[in-house]
Predict the 3D structure of the following.
Amino acid sequence: MGVEAIKQVDIDKAFHLFAANLREARELEFIENLTKLLSRLLGADHVMVSEIFEDAPDTAHVVAFYSNGELQQPVSYNLVGSPCEKVLSADSCVFNEGVCESFPHDEMLQELGAASYIGVPMLTADQNKLGLLAVLNDTPTDYSSTVFELLQVAAAQAAAELAQLRITRNLQESQRRLETLMNSLPGMAYRCKNDELWSMEIVSRGALDLTGYQPQDLINNSRIAWGELIHPEDRELVQQGGDDATKRGQYFRLAYRIICADESIRWVWEQGKGIANDQGEVTHFEGFILDVTEQHQHQEHIAEIAFRDELTGLANRAGLLDFLESQYEQNGEQDYLLVLLDVRYFRSINERFGLHAGDRLLSIVAERLRDGARDFQDIVMLARITGDEFVVVVKTNALKAEQFMTVANNLKSCFEDSILLGEHKWDVELRISGAFSYNADSAAELLQQASIAMHEAKQHELLYCIFDEGLERKVSAERHRTERFLKALREDKLSIYLQPLICLSDNQCVGAEVLCRWFDDELGAVSPDVFIDIARKQGVLPELGSQVLTKTCEQLRRWQYDGFELPYVSVNVGAQQFAAPDVVDDFLSTCAGLDTQLITLEITESDLMLDPQLALTVTGRLRDHGFRLAIDDFGTGYSSLAYLQQFSVDILKIDMSFVHEMLRDASSKTLINTIIAMARSLDLVTIAEGVETEQQAQALKQLGCEYGQGYYFAHPMSPEDFAKTWLQQQ
């Protein structure tokens, strides 16, 4: 054997044998037979076919290994440092002798003890390398070009079969995974026909647990069709849901009931999708179905808890809105009247008799409403939405406003008899508002309209109020004004005005209070009481205060640049600003470059007492940084002398209500005198607000008040006018 045997290879005979092998065997059998043929044709001691994978390019996996006349067990080996590595990198590798010496670290090669080696890669049609074909001999061998050509042909055939083998493996693995997945699902996976009965073609083993029927009972409707399992009341819903989703080319998701083999009813959740043929016709559905009975029962229990008021058993706010939303969606032609009832003086029940009495009262109110609802067939729902507020929903008739009064009077009649709370009798008084659904686009808006009407009734001490066009216009105007203000605040369009602070002893201006003003292009000049109330309701008082302080500091810097002698200024600060974690750092940043002793921060007595401990901390830090502090509207709050001694404040501002009354009300004058005396004892400065007459100014001066501000001295004015009137250039 050796060189002579290989040279005499009949290439045509070899190709004929390859073709015969291809006809008779496929994939792995073909590759194994190929190694035997090559061994016989070439007189080779060893013939090996190995494959590689992209995720492990340094490892070869033996597909077939014919060695010393026998097929060997497939193994894996390391390509690094082997002649096979060269085959894959250089498209071929030939060693006529000394191959073991050339690759001393190739363990598999050393075990074989081969002397010669020839290898070619196995390539796909697009030249991707699937592996290699190698021939080894135990003696030195001269491999001719004919041998090389023969191996290339054999490698191409092996590559084709190996590619098919991989496809087969992948398909088998996919099928195995699909079958495992289908049978591991908690429910039932399926494929069914798009027919009236949803005739099943494929059903997973989960069908037994789900329905009580074996999978084969459902396949081809051999015992029962899936469509027959669907609860009769839900069949139309299921059919329509599937059809609608299919038309949109989307998955359908449906919850419905089925009747199981033991005649029990279970809730299921199904997700599926239509499968179309080449003509675009949906012929089948595929998907899965889960048993959700327990979840459905749990959700019903949760809904019962979530939508029901625990104390009275009536619907709560969430239950009311859920009911109304469903009516808006399902029954748009029917209008409703929502009546909101407020139990007046309810708080005093809790305060006088205790919370248990309050709960008892609410329970009795609910019971009387139930009794009354039985007498009025148009009442469709009762609810308790807050502590002392109840809702009655009524179907409307043609006489809208008249109907509201009729319903309101009927409801009041339910409470003509007193309620006994222990040993005490209580006469229930109601305040009632209403709104009609045709005026609202949603359930939430309808309830909001009734709440707006209730707010209006409380504001004006009305027993009845209905949300009508007039109230709607008023609310719309308030909403518009709110939107305009927030826009002005956001776009920095608010202005500052200054009202001079006058020394009462010589009528000289010693400073000014900074006041915020809003001049709107559409609304004109809007009262501070109005827009400050908007800021409070919208929660933007800190932003408003910050903007005023910023504008004040900017104005001071301009005056400083223009050479004016800077006045002392005071700026109002809200409790919400004091509560900010970085309030002191924010003030210092805003006032950077200015003498902080020029700036007095005013906070009302009531705001100061919201959190006295916080106020003590913040005022102390602000004083440490040079700011002066004033308590605004002093005398109207509840601060104690003990707290006042602890606060790091400099100024008490006497509320204008006392100043206005001091000349005709002795008690107001006495209170002012007391405040001034107390301030003097604490070494604090006093400023009287709202001074409007000379007589008030003189009286305050006589009482020892040091400073005053008000219309008697000057109205608030723009920074330009203030500078012209009161400031001097250095």
